[in-house]
Every structure is written in structure tokens, then in C-alpha cells.
Design goal:
Layout: H1 2-19, H2 24-36, H3 40-53, H4 58-70, H5 74-86, H6 92-104, H7 108-120, H8 125-138, H9 142-155, H10 160-173, H11 177-190, H12 195-213, E1 217-228, E2 249-260, E3 268-281, E4 289-302, E5 305-308, E6 311-318, E7 321-329, E8 332-338, E9 341-354, E10 367-380, E11 385-398, E12 405-417, E13 422-438, E14 445-462, E15 465-478, E16 485-497
Antiparallel strand pairs: 1-2, 1-16, 2-3, 3-4, 4-5, 4-6, 5-8, 6-7, 7-9, 8-9, 9-10, 10-11, 11-12, 12-13, 13-14, 14-15, 15-16
Helix pairs in contact: 1-3, 2-3, 2-4, 3-4, 4-5, 5-6, 6-7, 6-8, 7-8, 8-9, 9-10, 10-11, 10-12, 11-12
Length: 498
């Protein structure tokens, strides 16, 4: 009904104009006047009438194309602009308008074609350079885009504010924020009262915040209390007729992490991290732990994701003695297939070496570990919350026949903002381990299922200081009694970021 009403109104308006005795030239001038006054619906009716009586009017064709663009009918604008461009005496600006239309439609091949024709037909070099810069921006060829925008403002100083704003965006896309800020300051200086300057001020403030918030070095310190109701994983049932008492203990937990993340230009990525995690029990000192990790992660950012190559070295101490060390490499690919939705893929290889002599060759846990992971990450609440699920397949090729196993690990973790300063975390994991050989002591192939669940709360007392509380439950199911146990831990403490 609405479209029919619009058609009737358009016909009535056209009839009234014709009844007034206006000639085609007068109608054309009236249509152009309405177009410039942004009365696009009225202009559309008039140009339609003019083209019915003079379908070859290049001016009417050109303005009808412009009107369709302003009405948002990009595809409908193309035939009119093409006729205006391909007439015996073409409208020069129609080439530029066609290129601009195809850019909006993301058809860059056609856009380049019409820009080439615009050059041949004497269109302003400043305008063709500016449009080429826009195409290059969309193609993520930011340095080439900067060259074109530079040509545009050199050819026509009036384009300088728009060109400098685009140059700033190109520098920002390559993470050259200082250069981006310099271009924005130029925009503000050239036309301080313009709408373009307002955009520039807004972007400059955003870049200032990014630079201010970014820390090349970031340290995190956590200190807290631990209660553990089964320190050494006491079996759930008797072993060889012996019922071991369940040993619980209180302890101190201390974690320190130092991150190095330089702000690199272009697509290069790099980060390094050192972390040490300690657990000190009040009574069971033989189970005290010190775990140190050092990682280097180079990478490359892509238009819709990133590729990284983490290399991680870990060293473990149990009691007062070195226990194990491991080096691992995990090439990874992250694909953002939709805003806030990221797919994760990785392959891994690790070499583990135990630092104590095994009880027997069959108990040797020195190993080559091969793995593959696929995951999905969803972010919400403006990036403050996330949900991540993963599946990992691993082959732990231990030198001792008792420890060679295939693993299937399923895990999920969620961070939920509850309030401006309060957030909750929940995670769950199940790991299926199928051992490949009959155990030399028990005469059966070991089959384990490890369940682990964690819930926690985090409250930000003030910026950089958080109170954390966490409860974890572990259930290890095994067909060999010594590996079958339950365990519960509670932790609470203070985290500081500096």
C-alpha cells in the first residue's frame, strides 16, 4: 500500500508540474534544484519525467544516478551513471561517481576500471587518487593507500583534511599510532571548526587512551591462602590391603608473572612471559611446588585473525628437588569469522624429561608429546566477558611402557561480568586417557577419566587490585586403585597488577 501511495503521489506531482507549462529544461532545473536541496524523492519524480520525454539527456541521467545513490539505491544508480558516462559527450564526473558506487558495493575491479576511464577523460587527479586510496584501504594495502591520499591532497589542498584523516586511519591500522596522531593534529589545525576536526579529536582521544593503557611491561603478583583436602592424591580405596589416611593441609600460594608486549608496527606480533607459581604446605613440605615458565610468542596479524608460534619452557620442583622440565612449541591459527567469534586451531610438540631416576624402565616418563587442538571463543559484554570451548587430542609417547597414552581432553571456561567490579569464572574439564600397554605392576591396561571443575569470584577493590576466591573439585577415575582419588581445594588471595 505504501509503495502504491508513493507512486500515486509521484504521478500527481508530475502531472501538476506538466500542467504549469514548464518545459523539459525548466523541469530539469527544478529537479536539480530539488536534488541540491536534498528533496530526493521529488527530484526522482522530476528526473523520471524528463527521461520519459528525453531519454538521452545526459544531465538528467547523471542526476538521476546521483539521486538514486542518495536514496540508497546503489545498484539502481549504475545504469543511469553508465549511460551518462558512455554518451557522445560524457559527463566527466559520472566516471568518478561510478567508481565511488562500486567501492560502496565492494566491487573493486569495476571501481578501478572506471577510475582508469576517469583519468582518460580528464577527471581531477586529486579525486581519482583519493578514490584509489579508499579502495586500497578496503584491500588492507595501507601503505599504498597513504601514497594515494598524499597525491590527492597535493593535487587539491581542499582535500587535505579528508586525506589526512584517511592517512591517520591507515597508520592506525598498521599500529603506527604516533604517526596517526600527527595526521589527526594536522586535520584539527587545518580546519579546527569543521565536522572533520571533531572526528579527528575523537580518534585522537581514542589513540591517546590506547597508548596510555598499553604497557610494554606488565607485572602480576598473587598471594593467597590454600586449603587442600588431599595433598598427595590418596586413593579412594585400599591398596594392597592398606588404607592410607587422607592427608589435608593448609598452605601459602604465591604467583608472579612478568609480561613483555612491545607495540610493534605493521603486522608483526611478539610477546614474552616469565611466570613462577609456588605452593608451600604447612605440614607436607615434601609436596611443596615451584613451577617456572618462560615463553616467547612471535606472530603475524592477518586481516581476520593471526598466526602465532609460542615456544614454552617449563621447570618443576617438588619438595626441595628438581622434578621435571619440558619444552614445547605450539603453532596456532586464530580466525575471526564474525565479530566476537573466533575459531582456534593449533598443533603441538613437547619434549618432557623427568629429573629423577625412575623406579624401573617401565616407569620412565621421559616423553615426546604430540597434540592438536580446535577451539571456539565468543566474547560479550564489550569484551569484558568470554566463553571458550576446546578439544585436544594428544599422544604421549613415553619411553616407559606404563605411561604411553592417548588423551582426549574437552574443556570449557567462562568469564561473566556480574557488576562493574565483580566477575565470576566457571570452568570444567574432562580428560580421557587410554594407556597403550598393560601395566607392568598390575597386569592390566590403565584407563583413566579425570574430571575437574572450578568456580571463582573476583572483586576489584581499586584499579590494579583484586580479591580472588576459588573452589576446585577433582575426581580421578581409574581402573587401577592407586590412581583413583578425589580432591578439593579452596584458594583466596590478593592479586596486584603493576
Amino acid at each position: 500500500m505504501a509503495r502504491k501511495r508513493d507512486y500515486l503521489l509521484s504521478s500527481l506531482l508530475m502531472s501538476l508540474l506538466l500542467c504549469t507549462g514548464l518545459h523539459a529544461e525548466d523541469l530539469l532545473e527544478k529537479g536539480i534544484s530539488d536534488y541540491k536541496a536534498e528533496n530526493y524523492e521529488e527530484a526522482e519524480v522530476i528526473f523520471s519525467g524528463v527521461l520519459k520525454t528525453g531519454p538521452d539527456s545526459t544531465t538528467a541521467l547523471y542526476y538521476m544516478g546521483l539521486t538514486q545513490k542518495r536514496l540508497g539505491n546503489l545498484k539502481a544508480a549504475i545504469p543511469y551513471l553508465k549511460k551518462a558516462a558512455q554518451s557522445a559527450i560524457p559527463v566527466r564526473d559520472s566516471f568518478l561517481e561510478l567508481a565511488d558506487t562500486y567501492i560502496a558495493l565492494e566491487n573493486y575491479k569495476e571501481a578501478y576500471h572506471w577510475l582508469d576511464l576517469a583519468d582518460k577523460n580528464g577527471a581531477a587527479a586529486s579525486n581519482t587518487a583519493f578514490l584509489r586510496g579508499q579502495i586500497l584501504m578496503n584491500e588492507k594495502r595501507f601503505d599504498d593507500a597513504i601514497v594515494q591520499f598524499g597525491k590527492a591532497k597535493s593535487a587539491d589542498p581542499a582535500l587535505a583534511p579528508s586525506a589526512d584523516l584517511q592517512i591517520a586511519m591507515a597508520h592506525a591500522s598498521e599500529r603506527r599510532l604516533e604517526k596517526a596522531r600527527a595526521s589527526l593534529k594536522t586535520v584539527i589545525t587545518i580546519s579546527p571548526e569543521s565536522e572533520m576536526a571533531e572526528y579527528a579529536r575523537s580518534y585522537e582521544k581514542t589513540f591517546d587512551n590506547v597508548i596510555k593503557e598499553h604497557r610494554t611491561w606488565r607485572g602480576t603478583l598473587y598471594t593467597g591462602y590454600l586449603y587442600d583436602d588431599n595433598v598427595f592424591g590418596k586413593p579412594r580405596s585400599e591398596l594392597f590391603g592398606i588404607n592410607f589416611p587422607k592427608k589435608s593441609d593448609n598452605g601459602f600460594v604465591g604467583n608472579f608473572r612478568l609480561d613483555y608486549t612491545p607495540f610493534l608496527e605493521g603486522r608483526k606480533l611478539f610477546s614474552a612471559q616469565y611466570a613462577v607459581n609456588t605452593t608451600t604446605y604447612g605440614q607436607r613440605s615434601e609436596y611443596n611446588q615451584i613451577v617456572q615458565n618462560f615463553s616467547l610468542t612471535p606472530g603475524i596479524s592477518l586481516s581476520n585473525g593471526a598466526v602465532t608460534l609460542p615456544v614454552i619452557y617449563s621447570h618443576y620442583m617438588l619438595g626441595q628437588d628438581p622434578y621435571m622440565h619440558q619444552i614445547a612449541v605450539r603453532p596456532s591459527y586464530f580466525l575471526m569469522f564474525k565479530e566476537g567469534h573466533i575459531a582456534q586451531f593449533s598443533l603441538g610438540f613437547a619434549r618432557r624429561e623427568m629429573l629423577k631416576k625412575p623406579l624401573s624402565p617401565q616407569e620412565n616418563r621421559d616423553s615426546n608429546i604430540f597434540s592438536g587442538t580446535v577451539g571456539y571463543l565468543y566474547t560479550f559484554a564489550e569484551g569484558k566477558g568470554f566463553f571458550n570451548v576446546r578439544y585436544e587430542l594428544s599422544d604421549d609417547v613415553a619411553e616407559g611402557t606404563n605411561w604411553h597414552n592417548l588423551g582426549n581432553r574437552f574443556s570449557a571456561v567462562m568469564l561473566i561480568p556480574l557488576w562493574s567490579r565483580l566477575s565470576a569464572t566457571a570452568s570444567g574439564e574432562v580428560q580421557l586417557q587410554n594407556y597403550q600397554n598393560a601395566n607392568s605392576y598390575f597386569g592390566v591396561r590403565r584407563d583413566d577419566t579425570l574430571w575437574n571443575g572450578v568456580v571463582g569470584l573476583s572483586y576489584e577493590i581499586r584499579k590494579g587490585f583484586k580479591l580472588n576466591a576459588q573452589y576446585a573439585h577433582t575426581r580421578a577415575e581409574s581402573n587401577i586403585n592407586i590412581y583413583d582419588y578425589t580432591r578439593n581445594t579452596v584458594m583466596c588471595g590478593l592479586e596486584t597488577v603493576f
